[in-house]
Amino acid sequence: MTPEAVESPTPAASAPAAPTNSALKDLRPKAELHGKVNRIELYGAFIDVGLGHDGLLHISQISDEHVRNVHDKLKIGQEVTVWVRSVDVEQGRIDLTMIKPPAMSWDELKAGQEVTGRVVQIEKYGVFLDIGAERPGLIHVSELANEYVSRPGDLVKVGEELHARVLKVSAKKRQIDLSVKALFEEKSKPEVVEDEDVKNLPTAMELALRQAMQGTDMADQMASFKVGKSQASRVKKDKPQRQQQTEIAMRTLQNRPK
Prior knowledge:
By secondary structure, the chain is α+β, with helices and mostly antiparallel strands. Helices cover 24% and strands 27% of the residues. It is built from five helices and ten strands, in the order αββββββββββαααα.
């Protein structure tokens, strides 16, 4: 057999990409990923999301309904859309979910925050507003408007968009209390504008100073008003000194030899 007849060896299949922790560092909770089911176990499935690490999709995260058998919902090679629940860079672990996470978690909701949502349910005692959280927030009937509201359905309709302010959040009770009235009250507050004429009005001390200076001439009064409280005090103190100087000058003129 000639050397030319020898077949070149078949190139070995390329090894899978090595896990890269740097790629995991860029992942954040709620990030949307697309991948394929790589392995199925009793407790869940491993999803290849193209990062060198298979993410774990626990059986409880396959659906918001109870799942008894992973094989009932997933098949090997099936393409799925998942979201990141948590990332452990040191362990190279990604926890995934097929349940789309809410736009706002309990930690992101704070009292005083302004939110926008759509009315999803109307009851006699109030309105439920979907603001993208895990569950709708409640606008109590007393928080719908400034005036008395007997029936919330007369004021809002299902599907209507509303702006509201968060009054209270309880992750333990899974409750979100909202208010539309709080926004109206803020807008109705009068704007405080300091008028220039009011700023220039004399103070009580300045008025008292003017009364004390009534015995002086008009020039002294104008000076006391313009120079301010501290300088006006000096003007008042300097008056006796000027009078004394004037008297000395008059006596000197009278005693001058004719």
